[in-house]
Amino acid sequence: MARLRIIFLLLSSIWLFNASCSYNRLAKTKTISTSVVTGENLIPVISDNGTSTRYKGEIDVLNKHFTGIIVLKQTDSQTKHMVFVTELGMRMFDFIIKGDSVKADYVFDALNKPALVNVLTQNFRDILLISSQNKNCEYKQDETGAFNWIKDHKNFIAVWKDKRNFATEVKVFEGNKKWSLINYENSYATIKFKRFGLVKLKIELNKIKE
Amino acid sequence: MKNILLLILIAPFAFAQNFKAVKDTAALRTKIEQMSKASNSIESDFIQEKNLSMLSEKIVSKGHFIFKKENLLRWEYNSPYKYLIVINKDKIWIKDDKKTSKYDMNSNKVFKEINDIMIACVQGNIFKSGKFKVNYFENEKYYKLELLPLQKNMKESLKKINMYFDKNVTSVSKLDMIEPNDDYTTLEFINKKLNGPVADNIFTAK
User: What is the model's pTM?
Assistant: First the structure.
């Protein structure tokens, strides 16, 4: 048992060291210019034209696996919604997005645990690029390519984009330690999210063709 | 004048939907119980429509289900993507394109609840569960059972279920599940086959 604890501590230290190195490397990369993130220079996941987008969603959190249909829609100029409905039609949660905040409007009773709701709202904020929009950003470039370096409250977000300003990869740093990784493929047709640290969370979204 | 014309045009449809209370509820209950007893197997396609009122969105799913007494159900979605739920007595399998999960109904309250409602809805004998206050209605086409949940935790996620039977009471034709915020899910059963041969080995998802 003691040996297992030592192995766990060693592995945690290596992971923390790696995460910290990654943060330092990105933070210290030379800044070329600064700007503000808008819907034009970083295409949002929820479009502002009032049409809905549907994804097949898979969420793995706290040893639980959920699947269902996720509907994303802007309902007025200030409000966006993210609704998760199971295949059987049960609404699991409804998150309301106003400005850069994501709040739970409804959570199915069996899932309504504060820790779970917090993890989901915080991380969907990053996945949907809500945490990046309207923030000051530094445009940085190193030998691996160009990226945007965004400060979001206590977090730092590194965003890599394609030529049409769709995000392709996002790394989120809490302080300089914990981080999550989001990969976007084919103009948000597939979104894969992985959160490291104590509360493991994996989310995969695949756009449903209408 | 335009409004009067419109009223004349839509009136027959409006009246066709009008339901009135059933006078002899005991007789209707007996018919439903007989139907339930006589239904050894049911096979049907279904169209499921989830209406999200706040978003003005409708999610349409299509699939096929097979039920066999006692407590065997294969509920399969083909659209918008493949998804399978199999209930075999106290076991439940859920299979998507990547993963098959098996659960023990007795160790999971939510699955037990889902199982009880699904099986009872398919068989049409949900009113016997004691979990609902039941009101009985009819029009020219259907008998409608309005099921109002009695349990506090169920009331939080379900306002009522409307269950429709054809006038010969041969099977459930349609279901509406209405949530407290007025979102609702409609299930319509089409191409039904009653009491056809059904092999036991389809009720697994291994």
Answer: 0.85
